[in-house]
Q: What sequence folds into this?
């Protein structure tokens, strides 16, 4: 079983829609949960991170963690064409240096 | 400008011909790492380095070597490349404070094809 599972998509939605991206993980020892965004032909860049269950909001983006279900989500409100990218979830254990990445979900926002 | 620079960006080579992909960062970061990205598999860590002369294996180290003789450079060496090493490679770096915040700065990637 993979440590992190992410639906690879692709996902295509109209501009203005609410987007939900999801990952599940298998090891309850993981403590830190991240979302990276990767534009075409670029390296990933950190979008958000959280270390507790619940929601964390940053503008149009909300990261949600449910440790009891081992489930993490990223919601994008009022999606824009500029949000079109691949989104990767990543997790890390306490004290660990290694990030474990999901497969990435390719998202397209259509004008 | 703070950045992680990889070279080359694109490389086509043949099986068995040794190659090196360079990675350099200008942020005085302690931590550096190499990943490969393959469709359906996401990013997988090859090797990482916590500081000069300190390196360790990631999840998929077979067929790769690294060295960290200087803080700013972390080259990835393929002694005898094989077609299954055809992939998109990323170098990343973090400072101590960045790592605590789960921030890694990625290079633009090197697309390698081994024929």
A:
């Amino acid at each position: 079983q993979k440590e992190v599972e992410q639906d690879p998509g692709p996902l295509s939605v109209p501009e203005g829609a609410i987007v939900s991206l999801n990952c599940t993980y298998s090891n309850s020892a993981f403590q830190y949960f991240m979302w990276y965004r990767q534009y075409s032909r670029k390296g990933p860049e950190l979008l958000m991170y959280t270390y507790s269950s619940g929601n964390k909001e940053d503008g149009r983006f909300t990261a949600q963690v449910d440790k009891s279900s081992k489930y993490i989500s990223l919601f994008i409100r009022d999606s824009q064409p500029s949000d079109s990218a691949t989104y990767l979830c990543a997790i890390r254990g306490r004290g660990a240096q290694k990030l474990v990445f999901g497969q990435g979900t390719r998202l397209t926002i259509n004008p | 400008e703070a950045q992680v620079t990889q070279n080359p960006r694109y490389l086509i080579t043949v099986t068995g011909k040794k190659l090196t992909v360079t990675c350099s960062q200008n942020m005085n970061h302690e931590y550096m790492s190499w990943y490969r990205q393959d469709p359906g598999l996401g990013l997988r860590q090859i090797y990482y380095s916590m500081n000069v002369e300190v390196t360790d294996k990631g999840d998929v180290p077979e067929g790769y070597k690294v060295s960290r003789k200087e803080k700013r450079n972390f080259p990835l060496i393929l002694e005898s490349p094989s077609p299954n090493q055809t992939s998109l490679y990323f170098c990343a770096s973090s400072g101590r404070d960045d790592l605590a915040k789960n921030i890694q700065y990625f290079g633009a990637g090197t697309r390698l094809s081994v024929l």
